[in-house]
Design a protein that fits this description.
- The chain has 7 helices and 2 strands, in the order H-H-H-H-E-H-E-H-H.
- It has 208 residues and is mainly alpha-helical.
- It folds into 2 domains: 109 residues, no CATH class; 67 residues, no CATH class.
- Helix 1 packs across helix 3.
- It is extended and about 70 Å long.
Length: 208
């Protein structure tokens, strides 16, 4: 974090701003971990968890989370679900809480109330290392398994990931084999484009 070009502030003010930004970031990451844990262990009755449901939730929550915070986040998630036809908020297929605790990503079984996609195709970028927060191939396979009809990778070698450096080349080949839902439109010539742009009042034309 640094001041805008041309703006000069003393070191004390800059440090205060940086510390405040760091606090907000830590708070955002904490709230994200809490919401991800609640979504992953969503109870049958959000208003009254069973002992087993409480134990499952406590196992994935960050340390120090109180009951009041759990109830507040549960109420917010339930409001989101009610406003989106029973669908819980989507979160990443790995748990940031487990990443912080154990240094690796742990797949989360999200619940979508049975409203899964008919089909989905997934491309993964291989960056060459199994770093902290990296989602293993099993987590992505779990995501694809939720598809009702077809769930498949595109150009991914599951044995080589995340060191699959030829994935982009294979992706181009695999995408060409996918049957298109709608035909690609023909190339658009300049006359219709010129006619469209000429009718735009917000555009100003300057000829030199």
């Amino acid at each position: 974090m640094s001041p805008a070009p041309g703006v000069h502030v003393c070191d004390r003010v800059l440090r205060c701003a940086q510390e405040q930004a760091a606090r907000l970031l830590r708070l955002a990451l904490h709230r994200r971990a809490v919401v991800a844990a609640i979504v992953a262990t969503w109870p049958r009755d959000p208003g009254k968890r069973t002992n087993a449901e409480w134990q499952a939730l406590r196992a994935v929550l960050p340390d120090g989370v109180g009951t009041a915070e759990i109830r507040n986040r549960t109420r917010q998630i339930r409001a989101y679900r009610d406003a989106h036809d029973g669908v819980l908020p989507p979160y990443s297929p790995w748990d940031s809480t487990q990443t912080a605790r154990h240094g690796h990503a742990r797949p989360i079984c999200q619940k979508y109330s049975g409203k899964h996609r008919e089909s989905q195709t997934l491309m993964l970028f291989s960056h060459g290392v199994e770093s902290v927060g990296h989602a293993p191939i099993e987590g992505w396979q779990e995501v694809l398994a939720r598809a009702r009809k077809i769930g498949s990778f595109t150009g991914v070698d599951t044995r080589a990931y995340p060191r699959d450096f030829a994935s982009l080349a294979r992706t181009r080949r695999d995408l060409s084999r996918i049957r298109t839902t709608y035909p690609m439109p023909l190339p658009l010539g300049w006359p219709p484009v010129e006619e469209f742009l000429a009718g735009r009042d917000e555009l100003e034309w300057n000829r030199e």
